[in-house]
Amino acid sequence: MSEDNPPPTQAQDSGIGISRQSPLEQPIVQETESGQKLLQFLQRRLNLPPTLLHRWVRTGQVRINGSRCKPFARVQTGDIVRLPPFAFKMAEESASETAPQPLTDTALDTQPVDSPPLPPMIGTDGYLWAFNKPAGLPTHPGTGHDDSLSSRLAAYFASAPFKPTPVHRLDKETSGVLLVAASYEALAKAQDAIRDGTLAKEYVVWVQGRWPFAETQLLRHFLRKDAAQGYEKVRPAAPGEADSREALCMVRPLRVEQAQSLLLVHLLTGRTHQIRVQLAAVGYPVIGDTKYGQAAPTRRHVPRGAYALPAPARMGTAEKSAPEPENLMLHALRVTMPCGHVFSCLPPWSGAHALEQMPEPVAAMTAPEHGGGCGVFPLTEQSAKNKFLRQ
Question: May I ask the CATH architecture of the domain 121-192?
Fold first, then answer.
């Protein structure tokens, strides 16, 4: 944890949690909570049903600085929120039996007894934190697994008015940079940057087969969740197919061998399992991917309608065969913020798959007319991305 931007502490933040000393004491909006809608603020503070909270606001039992308010009004730092006296008792009854752990300046170094440790922290930028998520740790709880990064954060910061929240997600078996917001403002800004394309995410990935392109390529597909697979898998779809969404990424080879290739992928959209599905769709499934690797075409090819390029000269050390690792060989390498702040970490791979130096980012590119088709398209370097790539 950076000393310049420590997590909120009890000493710094006297308004943490709901007071248990007096039922008449009113919550004060802290800096980390500023900008939230009133209902969000109340839900995070009280953990009560939103319909109940909405009724309290509508009937005037909840007020901001003494005035009536609307459920979707934005709260600001220092606002005093008046609640009905019985709200505190209801919140206490719904709270976990486990007492909240106190926050200290070394909160990230001393984990609660009942929680596994947090992953290593890469760095901070104000209330935005970056962790190195290991493969095997889900971002959020789900069916069959209660442990996750978000649940560990909730345990560490149980007393904080705003629980640090993952800004985006990585698949369970994907390792690497994962951003966490420690304030609502940081969360909103980071998610806005993801939506408008000003936050850049890059991945490194080992794929099966010899990648045939020497220069950066654009992969374009339409993807949709597969109802036949219980919506747990994603499949390529025809342009315009119902419920499909466009998926775009730029791919540059870092190392090409006979049986496997190391690629640098710059995401331009953020679809579920996007990198895994797109690479499998063009015949180069991610090594270790049991979900999409088995269904990949056995013949490496450029999809119909795409621009075919000659195979590049061989790069790196050729191997006729490569050992099959147990883990998914996909790693979130680098996140670049709109302000230029970079969070990065090398993958934990070893042996023939090791990456020991941070590669240069994928250069800004422009794409040719694609004619509405899907597949692989060549790119040319340019000072700014073409509008097509920013959509």
Answer: 2-Layer Sandwich (3.30)
CA distance 177 to 203: 9
Catalytic residue among 171, 226, 243, 289: 171
Query: For the residues of 57-71, what is the DSSP string, one character each?
Result: HHTTSSEETTEE--T
Instruction: For domain 31-94, give its CATH number from 3.90.1150.10, 3.40.50.2300, 3.10.290.10, 3.30.70.60.
Output: 3.10.290.10
Write the DSSP string, 28-47.
B--GGGTT-BHHHHHHHHH-
Per-residue pLDDT reduced to its tens digit, 294-345: 544 443 444 433 433 333 333 333 343 444 566 899 999 999 999 899 999 9
Are 121-192 and 200-390 in the same CATH fold? no
**Residue 342 has what pLDDT?**
94
What are residue 130's DSSP bridge partners?
A: 123, 179
Structure token pair of residue 290: 């049991």
Q: Is 39 exposed, middle or buried (0-12, 13-18, 19+ CB in 10 A)?
A: middle
Residues 31-37, mean pLDDT to the nearest whole number: 85
Stated pTM of the model = 0.69
Q: How far is CA 163 from CA 100, 160, 189, 264, in A?
A: 12, 6, 16, 33
Question: Tens digit of pLDDT for each residue in 175-190?
Answer: 999 999 998 888 999 9
Longest dimension (CA), the chain: 75
Res 265: pLDDT: 97
Q: Is the pLDDT of residue 237 over 50?
A: yes
**How far apart are alpha carbons 207 and 22 in whole angstroms?**
60
Query: Is 171 an annotated catalytic residue?
Result: yes
Contacts of 190 (CB under 8 A, 6+ apart): 128, 167, 179, 181, 199, 337
Tell me the C-alpha distance between 244 and 247, whole Å: 9
Report CA-CA distances (Å) from 174 to 117, 224, 275, 328, 337: 18, 21, 11, 7, 21
Per-residue b/e over 198-214, b at no fewer than 16 CB within 10 Å?
A: ebbbbbbbbbbbbbbbb
Question: How far apart (Å, rounded) are the C-alpha atoms in residues 210 and 307?
Answer: 18
User: Considering the domain 200-390 in this protein, what is its CATH number?
Assistant: 3.30.2350
Q: Where are the domains of the chain?
A: 31-94, 121-192, 200-390
330-336 and 217-225 strand pairing: unpaired
